[in-house]
Amino acid sequence: MKPDAIARAVLAGKPLDVPVIDAHGHIGSWHQFPMPRSTSAGLVAAMDGIGIDRLAISGIVGACGMNPVEGNNMVLDALTSHPDRFIGYAVVTPPNADAALAEFKRCEARGLRALKLHTWHGPLYTDAVYRPTLEYVNARKYPVLLHTWGAGDMKMLAELATTYAGSMWILGHTPSDLDGYISLAARFPNVALETCCSNAPFGLIEYLVAEAGADRVLFGSDAGFTSMAMMIGRIGLANISVADKQKILGENAARIFGLAA
Amino acid sequence: MPTPGFDLFDCDAALGRRHGATALEPHSKADLLASMDRCGIRRALVAHHSAWFSEVNLGNRLLTEETAASDRLVGCWTAVPDDAGDTERIPRVLQNMLAAGGRAVRLMPKTMLWNLAEWCSGKLCTSLQERQIPALIPLEETSFDALHGVLTHHPQLRVMLLQLSYRIDRELYPFALAHPNLYLSMSPRYSSHDGIERLRDQIGPERLLFGTRWPESEPGAGVSFTLYARIPDSDKRLIAGANLDRLLAEVLA
To answer: Which residue, A178, B10, B55, B164, is most buried by CB atoms nearer than 10 A?
Structure first.
C-alpha cells in the first residue's frame, strides 16, 4: 500500500500538514507519576513537532485530583499564554452542586466553553451534584468530555445523551468498552468516540471507522498524562482513507468545538 | 514498503496466536510483514507466542520455521531453566538458537511458572551473559526487585525490558540509572509524554529501543513515538534501530 501524505509525514517525523485537534489532554503534574513537561510551553513544543494545531485540556489536579479551581486556573492561564493553541475544559467536582455550577460559570466568564467530568470523584455523572451544571451546559450546547472506562455505564450514558441532548458527549477512552460505546454512538447522534488508550490496541481505528463511521471518531491522546507522539501514529498510519484520517484528526473536533477546521 | 528516514528495527514483536486475543488479532508472518510494510518498519526481532502459551520447544521450532530465510525477521527464542528436564541443557539450546539465526531470548517467568531468583535462573543468566545474548523480559513478567537481583548477580547481562507502563517513572529512572546494561523498549504502554526525550536526557540514547508490542498494539504507535521524539537525528537513529543492531551483532555466536 502506498502511504498517503499523512502517513508520509509520520514516517518522516515531520509535522502533519492537515488540521489537527487533539480532543483529550491535560495540563499540570499528578500525584501518582511525574508529568514535568505537561506545562503549556511543554505541550505546545510537542504539538509543534507533530503538527497539532489545538489541544483540548483540563487541569489534571482537578480532573483526577481534589483541586478543581487550581486545575481550572492552569487551563485559563494556558489559554491566556497560548490563545490559539488550547481549548479549555472546565472541571467541576463534588460535593456541592451549587459550587460546581458557580465554578463552571467562573471559567465560562473567562472563555471556557466545554466541561470535563471524571469518575475519579466517585458519583455517577447522573448524580444530583452534577445536574445544575449539566443543565446549564446543555442549554448552551457546550460539549462534555467524559472519562469512560467500560464499567457497565451504558445505561447512565444513554440517560445523559437523552436528557441533555443539546450537548455533544465525548466518550474518552473508547477502547475500554469498544462495542458498547459504538452501539451508543449508533443510537445517539450526540455521542462521539475518542480514541486514546495507552495500550494502543491493534486495529482499533480501522474498527471504529468500519463500525461507527469516521464522522463519529475524534483523535484524543490523553496528552500530558500520556503521549501525543505515540497516539498520533495510530491514526496517521492506520489502514483507512486519507479523507477519514482528516475527519478523525481535526474536522470532527472543529465541528464539535465550533472552530474553523 | 515505505521508506522512512530512519531504519526501524522493532525489538518487541511476537508471532502466533496469543492467549486471550480476539479472533481478529493478527498472528501470522504474513500479517506481521504487512503491518511492518504499512508502518515503514524494516526489520523485527520476533518471539513466538506458542512458546509461552503452548510449549517452549514447540514455540521455538515454529519460530525457527517462520524466520528461516527471512532478511527482515530475527528470531528471539524463549528460554527456561533446564533442571526440570523439559528442554535440552541451556548451552545446547543457545547453540541451537544461534545456529538457526536467533540472537536473543525471551524470559517469561510469571507465565511459565519459574523464578528469576539466582537459585532458579542463575545458570541460565550466566550462559546468556557469557555469550552476550540479550534477555528480553516484559515488566509484567517480573518486578524491579527481582530484576535488581538478576542484574546484581549478572552485571554484564544485557536485559531488554519490554512493555513498560507510563506510570512507573519514579521506579524506572533510578533503576535504569543503577543498571548500565538495562535497555528499555519504547513500545506501548510506555506512552509517557515526552518519554523518549526525558529518558534520553537522563540515561542517554544508547539504551532506548524502538518497539511496537505487535500484535497486541498498533505498530504505528511505537513508530510515531520514536520518529516524533524531539531529539537529534543521530540519537533517533540509535533508538530506531542502531542500538538493537549493535546488541545483536555483539552476540558471541
So the answer is: B10
pLDDT number for residue A151: 77
Chain B: residue whose CA lies nearest to A26: B193
What is the rounded CA–CA span in Å between residue B123 and residue B87?
Answer: 14
Q: Do A46 and B214 touch (CB under 8 A)?
A: no
Minimal Cβ distance to B194: which of A37, A207, A235: A37
pLDDT, tens only, A82-121: 999 999 999 999 999 999 999 999 999 999 999 999 999 9
Rg (CA), chain A: 17
A6: chain B residues, CB-CB within 8 Å = none
Does the pLDDT of residue A152 top 90, yes or no?
no
CB A256 within 8 A of CB A192: yes
Q: Is the pLDDT of residue B246 over 90?
A: yes
pLDDT grade for B4, boundaries at 50, 70 and 90: low
| Strands of chain B, DSSP E | 8-15, 41-48, 73-78, 104-106, 135-138, 159-162, 182-185, 208-209
Q: Percent of chain A beyond pLDDT 70? A: 99
Angle between helices A131-139 and A154-163 (to 10 degrees): 50
User: Which among A11, A227, A228 is the nearest to B227, CB-wise?
Assistant: A11
DSSP letter for each residue of B95-119? HHHHHTT--EEE--TTTTT---SHH
Chain B residues touching residue A46 (CB < 8 angstroms) = 193-194, 228, 230
User: pLDDT tens digits, residue range A24-66?
Assistant: 999 999 999 999 999 999 999 999 999 999 999 999 999 999 9
Q: Closest Cα of chain B to A39: distance in Å?
A: 11
Q: CA geometry: angle at A244 spanning B41 and A211, to 5°?
A: 95
Question: Do residue B224 and residue A232 have CB atoms under 8 angstroms apart?
Answer: yes
Q: In what order do the strands lie in the sheet with A21-27?
A: A21-27, A54-59, A86-88
Nearest to B225 by CA among B141, B166, B159: B166
Q: Do A203 and B169 touch (CB under 8 A)?
A: no
Place of cell 464522522: A215
Q: Is the pTM of this model over 0.90?
A: yes
Residue B2 is which amino acid? P
Give the pLDDT band (50/70/90) at residue A253: very high
What's the complex ipTM? 0.96
> Are residues B219 and B18 in contact, defined by beta-carbon separation less than 8 angstroms?
no
B191 closest CB neighbour out of A3, A32, A226: A226
What pLDDT is attached to residue B23?
A: 81
Q: Which residues of B touch A34 (CB under 8 A)?
A: 169-170
Distance CA B199, CA A113 (A): 36
